[in-house]
Amino acid sequence: MAHIDDPETQRANLSYIKASMKEPLLVREHEFDLARRWREEGDEKALHELVRAYARLVVATATRFRNYGLPLGDLMQEGNVGLMQAASRFEPDREVRFSTYAAWWIRSAMQDYILRNWSIVRTGTTAAQKSLFFNLRRLRAKIAESPSAASLTPENRRTIAETLNVEEHEVESMEMRLAAADQSLNSPLSEGGEDQWQDFLADQRPSPEEVVIGMRDSRMRSRWLSEALGELSPRERTIIAERRLREDGATLEELGRVLGVSKERVRQLESRAMSKLRTSMLRRVQDQGDLLLEA
User: Fold this and answer.
1) 114 and 140 share a domain?
2) 290 three-state secondary structure
3) What is the pTM of this model?
4) What is the pLDDT of residues 237-254, one digit of tens each?
5) DSSP character at residue 69
């Protein structure tokens, strides 16, 4: 749905567009001179003249993107940010016209703005998704057998995927996202009804009973583990504590130096201690599924 500005905003936009179009174009030598003066001397007057001369690029690009339903004024503001970025990064010595260089920065700034604001659900988080977002409608209109068709055919999806070098499932996913509008969870299910969409969202959190059972089981396992550790020798308890009960467990070589044995001996002692723990804890449970032991 296209955005419609209020009359005052429309007048302000029109005034900016007219002023931009009245600015004279720059010849190559003067353009490079302005860019050098800004880059090397920080001449703000040169910067302003350079930016004003190419504000028409901002207007032209904003007009191309206005069908995404966002305010034209906002698009032009974002384009001006891109134009300023281009001016700050432009290198005259590369012998590239500023208009060519700035066009990329202006388009990129507007595209980022559109992706941030087109939907409350973030769109275009990868290069493939960004390419799909800005090209899918155009390609669909170009190749679809019927523009009014509800969805693309598998053959059309395959063609678009090959054209944009993306996966077919990404084309299908973006097609669905572009077809669906944002909808508030507080919206009623039907006109005059009291039920809202959010009333039918499933709660994935554990129930109070599951929380209580989980806490009880955790305390029980902790007690079993403490009792099983008490059956180990002091050296075995040290190895288990340093290797298994710490987030950043010690290496076999480090424990070998502490205990005065080889790292292979530490590995053998650890294996024997784990076997003892498993046997000890299994004696304390009726259902082995109640006990989760890490090998």
Assistant:
1) no
2) helix
3) 0.50
4) 999 988 888 888 889 999
5) S
